Amino acid sequence: MNTTEVGIIAAACHLPSNRRTVDDLFREEGVKAGGDTLTRLGIDRVPLRNGESGSFMALAASQEALQRAGIDAAQLDFIIDYTILPQDYLVPAWNMSNRLQHELGAKKAFTVGFSGGGASNFLVSLSSGVAMLQANDNFKAGLLVGSEVTIPGSRVVNPSDPVTVLGDGASAVILQKGATTGVVLSTELRSDGANHDVYYIPGGALAHDQPEMYRMQLDKTRYDSSAKFEAVRDVATQAMQRAGVTADSISFALYPNISCDDQARFQEMFNFKPEQMCVTNRAENGHLHGTDFVLNYLSMLESGNRSGQHVVAASHGMGYLAGASVIRC
Asked: Alpha carbon 305 to chain centroid distance?
């Protein structure tokens, strides 16, 4: 056992059983789009919370991941939150990971969270968790967790020309030092600060009291013209080089469930075969930010034995935070 290697020893998702079709959501949010839009998105329905809070879903996912890992929460050295959308109260005055620490009984852990970055938030937390475990001789295990609760009226991103449809859900991953499976070999990250306001909520914290100001906004022109795919190609290539593997030796790719078109573009860029990516979760769940990675990771494991094979997890982070990790199953 290599005690300096850190890997994913367990993962879990909590998705609400309540689901709505994209057709229904289009009508509710005033989206006028034809069948070609639905085909381009490739999303049929998304999970919607039915009274569950973000922290409730995060707690459920975390407890399941801990049970699968066979470790007690008291053994956790840290909790990293990769949530993008609001949770129970107004942030940053309130921190979901603090509540999780209390409710899980993770008494010796400390908590930290990241904001912005889209689905790449998961890769930032993965890289940070691995670095913490490798740098501290006393650390043994950590929890990564995210929980998304979409703001009402904002499920369809860019209603005039939809880019994706957002669902609600949570996920959790247990990292452990000395793991022999799910080993994270390398991670590369790159942000484009010029795109800080490509994807945002104009209302801010307490700047406005108009409900319409709290609808998710996307600058579609800048989003389309940004070099987001070139960036994700570069960081993925660099992560593979650092891990000592080539694209030809990658058995599977984990990529967010933004849309059918977005996934196809990534697949073509690396010449991956259809069976090398999980796309079924997109149709049934829409886009869940960082939880997409965990959902697709679990589906990959369920699809067959990949022991010893290499996997790349990558995201362009909605155009402003590209990231990629190479994992040895």
From this structure: 23
Q: pTM here? A: 0.94
* Of the candidates 47, 87, 121, 124, the residue with the CA atom closest to the CA atom of residue 282: 47
Please state, in angstroms and as integers, the Cα–Cα distance from residue 232 to each residue in 130, 219, 313, 318, 319, following that order. Answer: 21, 20, 10, 11, 9
Q: Shortest CA distance to 292 belongs to which of 267, 268, 270, 259?
A: 259
3-state SS, residue 255: coil
The 10s digit of each residue's pLDDT in 46-95 is 999 988 999 999 999 999 999 999 999 999 999 999 998 867 776 666 78
CA atoms of 115 and 143, how far apart (whole Å): 17
Alpha carbons 270 and 228: distance in angstroms, whole number: 15
> Is 76:44 a contact under the CB 8 Å cutoff?
no
Evaluate whether 152 touches 48 at the Cβ level (below 8 Å).
no
Burial of 34 (0-12, 13-18, 19+ CB in 10 A): exposed
Farthest CA pair distance, the chain: 57
Angle at 109 between CA 107 and CA 111, to 5 degrees: 120
Under 8 Å between Cβ of 121 and 191: no
Measured in whole angstroms, how far is the alpha carbon of residue 87 from the centre of its chain? Answer: 16
Over residues 298-325, mean pLDDT: 94
Please state which architecture CATH assigns to domain 6-180. Answer: 3-Layer(aba) Sandwich (3.40)
DSSP letter for 155, please. Answer: S
User: Residue 128 forms beta bridges with which residues?
Assistant: none
Residue type, 92: P
Q: Which CATH number among 3.30.2010.10, 3.30.420.10, 2.70.70.10, 3.40.47.10 corresponds to the domain 185-328?
A: 3.40.47.10
Query: How far is the CA of 106 from the CAs of 10, 75, 100, 179, in angstroms?
Result: 17, 7, 8, 21
pLDDT of res. 205: 58
Q: Where in the chain is the domain with CATH 3.40.47.10?
A: 6-180, 185-328
State the Cα–Cα distance between residues 218 and 166, nearest whole angstrom: 13
